[in-house]
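Posting for a labmate who doesn't have an account.
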Amino acid sequence: MTDWASLLMDAGVNVPNETDEFNVPCPFHEDVSPSLSINIEKGVWICHVGCGQGSLKFFLSKYLNIPWASMDQYLLNQEFDFDINMFGIDEEEEPLEEVDFAFREGFVPEWIFERGFNKQTLYKWGCAVDEENSLIIPVYEQNKCVGWISRRKYLTPKYLYSKGLKKSRILFGANHIEPTDFVCVTEGSLDAMWLDQCGYASVALLGASMSKYQEELLVDLPTKEIVLCLDNDSAGQIATEKSLTRLSQRCIVSTIELPREHKDVQDIRNTKIIEATINNRSLW
């Protein structure tokens, strides 16, 4: 059986945990609200605005710009994970495998500086560049590299993840966290890197949803307070409410209110606005 959830996550689609059917923003048009419905169990999708519908095989072909004739080979080349829970083993206890970071660190695409990042930050986070001029960001579990993120400037989707990287098992940036008063939690890797550059300890969920495993990682961070800094859209707002409900029972948690004109924290280039937004956070 095809593991559509893993395939979609590897392609950069935010797949919620513990559900077979969900809505996400459609990547084929400017989407102000999630209008794309996906059913993993049935292997189908539909854009309610009219961009298309059909099988998830067709969706990935369209989304990743892979010729239809090449899709069977693409699917055959994927490594699918069996549900080992049916054998009585807790998947979350399985260690993530270390991978070789096959990119030359110290060289990054020039366009990333247009987003306000400086060389010190890109060096700190071990960034590199690939042959497509994409920014490559390694992902670590403690001191072990377990994969990487490809942030592409023009191609769709903007984010790709290395094969086999289990985002629900990762708290991006946790390896940089030292004892501190509070830690900011973002959706995207660039958001966390941006807040870090602005002087705020930060980690990223690599998506809007927080898995149970990520919840445990957050609670175990050496900090007094968790500050939720998720995106300023409907998906981010829903995720914030769900995360608040779960985390507030276990630790001190607060939220920020992004200015209406900014979609996420990395969209705020004025450091004074960043400072005011975080200082005005609300305890829940």
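Reply:
Got it, the structure tokens are right above this. The chain has two domains: 4-80, 98-284.
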